[in-house]
Amino acid sequence: MLSIGKLSILAVGLVALLAFGAREISTACAPAAKPDAHGHGHGHGETEDGHAQEGFLVRACEDGVFVALKEQAGFGSATVPAKAETAGTESAQGKSHDGHDDGAQVAMKADAKDDGHRHGSGGDEHGKGEGEAAEGLIKLSGAQIEAAGINMAPALSGALSKEIAVPGRLTLNANAQAKVVPKLAGTVASIMKQPGETVAKDDVLATLESREMAEAKSEFLAGTRSAELAKVTFEREERLWKQKVTAEQDYLNAKNAHQEAIIRIDLAHQKLHALGLPEDEIDRLPKTKDQENARLYELRSPIAGRVIARDVILGQVVGTDREVFTIADLAKIWVEMSVAPQDLPFAREGQDVIVTSGGKTATAKVMLVNPMIDPDTRSAKVVAELDNSAGEWRLGDFVSARLISGKQEAALIVPRSAIQTVKGSPVVFVNEQAGFRARPVTTGREDSENVEILSGLEFAETIATMNTFTLKAELGKAEAEHEH
Question: Which CATH number fits domain 137-158+411-483: 2.40.420.20, 3.10.20.70, 2.70.98.60, 1.10.510.10?
Fold first, then answer.
């Protein structure tokens, strides 16, 4: 039996315990607080540490005060009655006391939050995918493509020329040049043509005052007069002989004299012709009254072409061993190439040669292959003839020459103009429905016009083949804006 004092103390403790439990239960069963930004509601007076007790507080609301008090008093976990279990099950399923499906709403909110997160993530991934798909795509309208001169063609198989690159130099065509040398000594009286000027065949280049020319002309003129007199004498003696007036011997002497005069005039004519005097000028000599110019000797161009050298001045005395002018026909010039012995079998007469210099490219044709190896350069000389009718090529220039020795088949080739270098790697611009996309490729063999594609491009894909530098510029501009 407990004493009255002990019972009083026990009653006071029980009342305090009931008061404490009621306060905790009222707090836990208070109306739900407004959810915070994280979607979680905090009740009145609830702290972050109180989250760990949420399971107990809910049970106190649903299972009754005594269960809560028992746990709160430290007597151990109370066994939940069937009604409490049922209520707990309904609570777990989201059933509230007012009949609303709060659990379903919580689940929907959670799903919505999860779905929203996933959708947002998916949206990010979707946007990222679209961004990656659009990155590197160059969009141009048809008018812009036409204005830029961008041509398109499918990448197909084809043949590459087998080429051998050799150094070369442009020289005069030895078969189309002439050195003008006086055929007699004299003093330069006048100069008619200067280096660089174009001349026709028989144009006068300069005149010399020559005693030999004067003597040759005088000899011809004297012979002409002698022949004329001999002819008159012969005709008279022939007429008298036929009339039996003179002796036959006089007739024969006149005939011989006439023939000798003809021979002398013919020799004088040939001498003038050998000295370079034109035929029509020789024929005019007997009719020319002004014989003061008889001593003038005219230097004439033997071929049509251009004056490329002059080595004479006014008043200079020149002999028959001096080259005073050089005339060359520059419409056809030579390309002299040095070919290594191992490459000599690939060089043959009639073969095409691609010549490049200073941005100009032309095709020449091999006309001479020298089989002798130069002991100093250890190479053989191969000569090709190059058309220079337009006068674009300059004598003495060094050129790059490529001997075309055959064809090699390739599975996929593109024009050289289709390839651009982006970030140090070759690319082609593939035509897609929405625009052009830079496609990295691996290149192989190449010639002067085409390049073999080993990987990165499919057969028959349409690519930009001309003025692709415009697309490269647009790509660089787009990347700069993207980085900014």
Answer: 2.40.420.20
For residue range 346-387, what is the model confidence (pLDDT) as tens digits?
788 998 899 999 889 999 999 999 989 999 989 999 999 999
Rounded CA-CA distance 394/425 in Å is 36
As a whole number, the mean pLDDT across the chain is 76
Best-predicted range by mean pLDDT (245-249, 258-262, 459-463): 459-463
Distances, alpha carbon 186 to alpha carbons 221, 272, 282, in Å: 21, 15, 20
- On the question of pLDDT at 188 being above 90, the answer is yes
**Of 312, 296, 308, whose CA–CA distance to 181 is shortest?**
312
pLDDT recorded at residue 83: 38
Please give the pLDDT value at position 275: 81
Q: Is-above-0.85 flag for pTM? A: no
pLDDT single digits (tens) 170-183: 999 999 999 999 98
pLDDT at 212: 84
**Hey, which CATH number is domain 174-327, 2.40.50.100, 3.40.50.11540, 3.40.50.620, 2.160.10.10?**
2.40.50.100
